[in-house]
Design brief:
Largest sheet: 5 strands, parallel
Number of helices: 15
Number of domains: 3
Strand order of the largest sheet: 4-3-5-6-7
CATH architecture of the largest domain: 3-Layer(aba) Sandwich
Helix content: 55-70%
Low-confidence stretches: 80-85
Shape: globular
Oligomer: single chain
Structural class: alpha/beta
Length: about 290
């Protein structure tokens, strides 16, 4: 039940022991609170909001990051612990990895990755640890809460580990996918995650990596005859600049665009499909649809 909406934010703050500023931040960033407006226009919070804040605090006290704690809390509130929550025992290990990366502690970070991979499937680690961490790291960097050194250190360490896991991903017995970042695009971690998840479904991966000219992708088609091509970018202008070339590429092989720069209008203009899910879910969907 939603509960009765009667609490002003000051009263809610007093009850749960969380400053109003932090409550507003949780509401804006994660949708944790769902206030209603009074007749006078005041924001009123319910007992359900209070319960979610208390749950959020429990997860934070257990060492879970704020973004992960919010996801767990909202899943519990929706009554979907099996589908929306993380696997039991993964949160403390994810916190160990996050803390090690934030401290620039390479041995501890590698040890945390090793523990995660020893206990959980690769897809679970990618979906429930790596992707949420990268998303939160990007948000912290934009807010000035993570340094350039932390962002570079974490990205480089995780990229190295993921590429190590990718060894042999070109030897799958299933269809082949060519994966590339758009010209000028250097952020390839989500694309690597997509490739690993697709390889786990039996696909063979040809990975061209960052800053790939579309002409190079076209040349690759003659060598490997892929079933599917994915071009990724965090920037819409980079994809728009290659629109004509991507449209020509789509005449020869099914292609998809992905990343924050990929839009429905760009997909329509190039004849590509649009991958909107997280990379692991997107890979599973592609594997199912193109099987």
């Amino acid at each position: 039940m939603a509960g009765t909406a009667h609490l002003r934010i000051g009263e809610l703050s007093r009850r749960v022991g969380v400053p109003p500023e932090l409550l507003r931040a949780w509401e804006q960033r994660y949708g944790l609170l769902q206030p209603v407006r009074s007749a006078g226009g005041f924001r009123l919070y319910t007992t359900a909001d209070e319960s979610r804040v208390r749950s959020m605090r429990r997860h934070l006290d257990a060492g879970v990051s704020a973004a992960q704690a919010a996801r767990l809390t909202l899943a519990e509130s929706a009554g979907e612990p099996g589908e929306g929550s993380e696997p039991a025992g993964i949160a403390p290990l994810a916190a160990d990895l996050e803390n090690a990366l934030d401290r620039l502690d390479e041995p501890a970070a590698h040890a945390a990755v090793d523990r995660l991979l020893a206990r959980f499937t690769l897809q679970t680690v990618l979906r429930d640890v790596v992707l949420p961490y990268l998303h939160e790291l990007g948000e912290r960097w934009q807010r000035g809460e993570a340094s350039v050194a932390q962002e570079h250190f974490a990205s480089n360490l995780l990229r190295g580990r993921l590429l190590g896991l990718a060894r042999g991903w070109g030897q799958g017995a299933g269809p082949r996918a060519v994966l590339a970042c758009a010209p000028g695009e250097l952020h390839d971690l989500p694309l690597i995650v997509f490739g690993l998840a697709l390889a786990a479904r039996g696909w063979s991966i040809t990975y061209l990596g960052p800053d790939t000219p579309v002409a190079t992708i076209q040349e690759t088609l003659e060598e490997v005859e892929p079933r599917f091509v994915v071009v990724s970018s965090t920037s819409s202008p980079r994809l728009r600049a290659a629109k004509a070339q991507l449209a020509e590429l789509a005449r020869h092989v099914p292609i998809a665009i992905a990343g924050a720069g990929a839009t429905e209008s760009l997909a329509r203009a190039t004849g590509a499909s649009l991958l909107q899910d997280d990379p692991v879910t997107a890979a599973e969907r592609v594997a199912d649809e193109l099987a």
